[in-house]
């Protein structure tokens, strides 16, 4: 298991859509037990309890991708040395945007929402996003998941009872504007999700996928990873069979958490950006 070194001793964890920093609670304990300083800053204005955000979701409705990225960039630049940046889902998209800005010692995009240029849109992804995308007016709203929608999108590998408990503890309304920005990025020349995938001087980047993930299926993540093939900076891809989008707490989450940390520590401390590992091509 990775341990801190003189160069890398801090991890910044970035939550995704429909979640808050609470979703990292198990990962925080696991990484802190290894001696790392673990930071879980919330999206701007969302540094509140789940219950508060459900009662008043206005801070969620205000979110924009560029503001979120600026928020985390400021936090990371204030740290004494570059951290490992890890993000889940839309946090994985944000991680890629931060790495593209030259930030971080290594980046890990965990089941990430896609950057501009990914054209795959599987039916499972459409179904997971339908509660927001079916109504253009939701661009300006925070839209909650029902228990049933959460079960399909996050809890599809666990029991209904376990999924309902996870929904109760972690789920908050999703930021409509953020989802619309990502969903229609390929139609916008100035999309906030645009990344310079040919950049050579960025930190190493790992993208992971879950074999049973309905929100971001492996075909989407591998397509995202392969956009970086034009760069000699380190880019790696790893798929975890049988895993859903609920990396914060589904059985076996420890394996992905450990792999992410071990990869990031090794990449940050030992690798030079000269090798690109290609993700498998998917039809």
UniProtKB/TrEMBL annotation:
Keywords: Hydrolase
GO MF term list: hydrolase activity
One matching Pfam family: Abhydrolase_6
InterPro entries documented for this protein: AB_hydrolase_1, AB_hydrolase_fold, Carboxylesterase_BioH
Domain AB hydrolase-1: 11-249
Record PANTHER family: HYDROLASE ALPHA/BETA FOLD FAMILY, PEROXISOMAL MEMBRANE PROTEIN LPX1
Full protein name: Alpha/beta hydrolase
């Amino acid at each position: 298991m990775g341990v801190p070194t003189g160069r890398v001793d801090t991890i910044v964890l970035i939550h995704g859509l429909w979640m808050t920093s609470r979703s990292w609670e198990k990962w925080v304990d696991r990484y802190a037990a290894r001696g790392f300083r673990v930071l879980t800053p919330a999206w701007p204005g969302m540094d509140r309890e789940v219950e508060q955000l459900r009662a008043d979701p206005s801070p969620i409705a205000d979110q924009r991708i560029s503001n979120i990225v600026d928020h985390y960039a400021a936090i990371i630049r204030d740290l004494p040395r570059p951290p490992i940046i890890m993000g889940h889902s839309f946090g994985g998209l944000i991680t890629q945007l931060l790495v593209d800005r030259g930030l971080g010692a290594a980046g890990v995009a965990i089941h990430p929402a896609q950057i501009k240029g990914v054209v795959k849109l599987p039916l499972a992804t459409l179904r997971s996003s339908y509660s927001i995308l079916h109504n253009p007016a939701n661009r300006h709203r925070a839209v909650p998941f029902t228990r049933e929608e959460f079960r399909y999108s996050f809890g599809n590998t666990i029991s209904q009872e376990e999924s309902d408990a996870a929904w109760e503890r972690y789920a908050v309304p999703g930021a409509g504007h953020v989802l619309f920005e990502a969903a229609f990025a390929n139609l916008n020349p100035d999309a906030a999700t645009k990344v310079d995938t040919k950049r050579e001087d960025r930190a190493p980047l790992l993208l992971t996928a879950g074999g049973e993930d309905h929100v971001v299926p492996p075909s989407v993540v591998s397509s995202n990873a392969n956009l970086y093939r034009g760069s000699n900076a380190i880019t790696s891809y790893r798929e975890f069979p049988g895993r859903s989008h609920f990396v914060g707490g589904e059985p076996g989450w420890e394996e992905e958490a450990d792999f992410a940390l071990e990869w990031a520590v090794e990449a940050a401390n030992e690798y030079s950006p000269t090798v690109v590992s290609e993700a498998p091509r998917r039809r």
